[in-house]
Amino acid sequence: MGNSGDHESKRSRAAAPAAAKQGVSGIGAVLAPAMSGALLSRIFNWSRSGVGPRLLAAVLLFSSIVTLVLTGLQLYLDYNREVGVIATRLDEIGRSTTGSLGESLWNLDQNQLKLQLDGILRLPDIRAAEVREIADRPNPIRVAVGEPGARSIVTRDYPLYTTVQGVARTIGVLHVEATLSEVYQQLLNRALVILASQAAKTFLVSLFIIYMFHLLVTRHLVAIADFVGKYSLARPPPPLHLERRPPYDPDELDKVIVAFNAMCGNLERAYGELREANANLERDLKIRRRAEDDARASEQRFRDYAETASDWFWETGPDHVFTYISDRVGAFGMDRAALIGKRRSDGAFDRDAEPQKWREHNAMLDRHEPFRKFEYRGRDTAGRVRHFSVNGHPVFGADGAFMGYRGSATDLTVQHETQERLRQSQKMDAIGQLTGGVAHDFNNVLTVITGTIEIIQEGLADRPQFAAIAQLIDDAAARGAEITSQLLTFARRQPLEPREIDVNALVVETAKLLKPILGEHIEIVTRLADDAWSAMADPSQLSSAIVNLAVNARDAMPGGGRLTLETANQELDGLRSVGDGDVMRGAFVMVAVTDTGHGIPADIHERVFEPFFTTKGVGRGTGLGLSMVYGFARQTGGTVAIESEEGRGTVMRLFLPRSKGEMPARTAVVQAPATARGHETILVVEDDPLVQGYVVAQLGSLGYRTLVAGDGAAALALVDQGARFDLLFTDIIMPGGMNGRELAEAVRLRRPGVKVLYTSGYTDDTIVHEGHLDPGVALLCKPYRKAELSEKIREVLAGEPPA
């Protein structure tokens, strides 16, 4: 019994693993290819290639799901039935063996217990059995057969009883284990059989469905797709027909083909109509496009003209209000947006000054007449006065209604300014020529007066009352000489002796002279630039210019004020000169004279430099001070600028050209001239008899011998006759067609090295160029006194270079 039980137990234990291993290997052999990624990928790609594969995939998927669900349900029912059989067997073991096992346990017969347990182990699906004694003593009885399992088992525990004196008493427990491995193996085998048979059936059915779907539907859909893909409305093919074996009844595909052919016919007719409509539309579009291109070209042409022309264009409505102004108006400082909605007269500057002109223009507009070159003045956005010339033409609608005006406008500001500068320049040149000619004759007279008055003063030294009268005549002559000097300076005919000067030093010295001239009620302030450049100018003329500016400033401050003398370095680039309008560029030294007086009205800024123009009362000035400053500045190569506002004072800026040297030369203190005598022979050439007589008398009183000629021809005749002389003393401007310079050159051809002294009351371009004496030229300006005459003659005879 014992050996038999062990053998059965070993057989049972050996069979279960073998069955389990066979089941696992069977599942792996079936499912391993289906789970490979490459196969799934190919199936997925194939299923996307058409309707048939998708239908096959759908059928397979649905059939597989149904098969799996039904197989799972069947296996579940089989599992419950098999488990129920095992549970019934265990219950039967409990009913049939507990009594005998309890009796054997009560008798402590372990052999009998083991035989009985082996019998239980031989029953189907029983894996292990055990009897445990329940007793309060050491080493209770425990008999076990088989191998207990940890998984897939069903267990039962049955109490073992014995009856003692009619009372049932629990003496132990029967524990039985049944394995489910055989059940699982059977279920697995059954599932594999079901799945394999269902899969084969589903696959065959699906292939049949695919074939029938291809035969009835898919191939016709492909034919329809090919027909549609190759269909062309331009060259339509014959109607579509399906390849079907007769006889057959029309189905849905035939209805689709009929409808499709009808649709194609409608498309062909619609396409023909559309093609005809497109042709008509294309013709209309070409005509419209050509018209639009012409209109666009015309508009662009107008815009190009409007924006590139020197003028600007405008339009007004019937009420003469601007409705359009071209953008070109902005180039002239006008605000286009501000002008829209206004009349022309609204922005006119001269509407009140010239009312008659505007009344006539408005009357012409009301009569709807064209107009040309209507000129008026207005202001730009910066407030500057501008001159405009306007042309306009009335515009009428198709019904003859007046629509407004179209026209153009031209900015004439530059032309007006140029004409004004030209007029001013011509006026200044004319005044200069006039004043120069007057000064020439007047200086001849003053030369005689100043010279003879010196002789009279010497003879009246012991008669004070007559000496005083002679002094008055001398002062008046000096005053006349000063006036003629200022006239010549304005006319730029005053010979200058420019040199490199320290402007700061000259301003400081001049400021000292101004204190007694201006008076105590005028405060003098100097603001000198530490790095002021040296200037190239005549120091005496510059000092006179500063004095003239200061005197004008004093007259503008009758109640007192402040006079500021300032120097600075200036780089000019485009400063327009007053009067002639020349543009000044380069490096200049600025000398500014600023006062706190009543200022100069803006409308006379351009006239303050005119000779004899003055705003002072009669007898309070000649009006030559600023003219002299202007002439000196322009002759020096600089200019003068005015900045003034009524009630806020005036700034006069004098610009002098910067010297090219590095160190300015300081002017030596001028000593009073002393009368020098001589014994040489002098050839005097003078056309004015009064001056000629005066010069001969003065030279004779100085000890010189004289030869006299009234013009160049007479002088050359004396030279050709062999007359001996040491010095040629000649006037520059003389009648007879030969001036003093030409005479000197002719004499030097005959007498090389002869010394020449020129004299004149008015110098043209004969020996003076750009305001400077030519190199090596000695000049004695009229009027001159006896001491100046003697000093200049000794200087030339001694061979000293002229200052």
From TrEMBL:
<keyword id="KW-0597">Phosphoprotein</keyword>
<feature type="coiled-coil region">
    <location>
        <begin position="264"/>
        <end position="294"/>
    </location>
</feature>
<keyword id="KW-0808">Transferase</keyword>
<feature type="transmembrane region" description="Helical">
    <location>
        <begin position="55"/>
        <end position="77"/>
    </location>
</feature>
<dbReference type="InterPro" id="IPR013656">
    <property type="entry name" value="PAS_4"/>
</dbReference>
<dbReference type="InterPro" id="IPR011006">
    <property type="entry name" value="CheY-like_superfamily"/>
</dbReference>
<dbReference type="Pfam" id="PF17149">
    <property type="entry name" value="CHASE5"/>
</dbReference>
<dbReference type="InterPro" id="IPR000700">
    <property type="entry name" value="PAS-assoc_C"/>
</dbReference>
<dbReference type="Pfam" id="PF02518">
    <property type="entry name" value="HATPase_c"/>
</dbReference>
<dbReference type="Pfam" id="PF08448">
    <property type="entry name" value="PAS_4"/>
</dbReference>
<feature type="transmembrane region" description="Helical">
    <location>
        <begin position="191"/>
        <end position="213"/>
    </location>
</feature>
<feature type="domain" description="PAC">
    <location>
        <begin position="372"/>
        <end position="424"/>
    </location>
</feature>
<dbReference type="InterPro" id="IPR000014">
    <property type="entry name" value="PAS"/>
</dbReference>
<feature type="domain" description="Response regulatory">
    <location>
        <begin position="681"/>
        <end position="797"/>
    </location>
</feature>
<keyword id="KW-1133">Transmembrane helix</keyword>
<feature type="modified residue" description="4-aspartylphosphate">
    <location>
        <position position="731"/>
    </location>
</feature>
<keyword id="KW-0812">Transmembrane</keyword>
<keyword id="KW-0418">Kinase</keyword>
<keyword id="KW-0472">Membrane</keyword>
<dbReference type="GO" id="GO:0000155">
    <property type="term" value="F:phosphorelay sensor kinase activity"/>
</dbReference>
<dbReference type="InterPro" id="IPR033414">
    <property type="entry name" value="Sensor_dom"/>
</dbReference>
<dbReference type="InterPro" id="IPR003661">
    <property type="entry name" value="HisK_dim/P_dom"/>
</dbReference>
<dbReference type="InterPro" id="IPR004358">
    <property type="entry name" value="Sig_transdc_His_kin-like_C"/>
</dbReference>
<dbReference type="InterPro" id="IPR005467">
    <property type="entry name" value="His_kinase_dom"/>
</dbReference>
<dbReference type="Pfam" id="PF00072">
    <property type="entry name" value="Response_reg"/>
</dbReference>
<feature type="domain" description="Histidine kinase">
    <location>
        <begin position="437"/>
        <end position="660"/>
    </location>
</feature>
<dbReference type="InterPro" id="IPR001789">
    <property type="entry name" value="Sig_transdc_resp-reg_receiver"/>
</dbReference>
<dbReference type="InterPro" id="IPR036097">
    <property type="entry name" value="HisK_dim/P_sf"/>
</dbReference>
<dbReference type="InterPro" id="IPR036890">
    <property type="entry name" value="HATPase_C_sf"/>
</dbReference>
<keyword id="KW-0175">Coiled coil</keyword>
<dbReference type="InterPro" id="IPR035965">
    <property type="entry name" value="PAS-like_dom_sf"/>
</dbReference>
<dbReference type="Pfam" id="PF00512">
    <property type="entry name" value="HisKA"/>
</dbReference>
<dbReference type="InterPro" id="IPR003594">
    <property type="entry name" value="HATPase_dom"/>
</dbReference>
<protein>
    <recommendedName>
        <fullName>histidine kinase</fullName>
        <ecNumber>2.7.13.3</ecNumber>
    </recommendedName>
</protein>
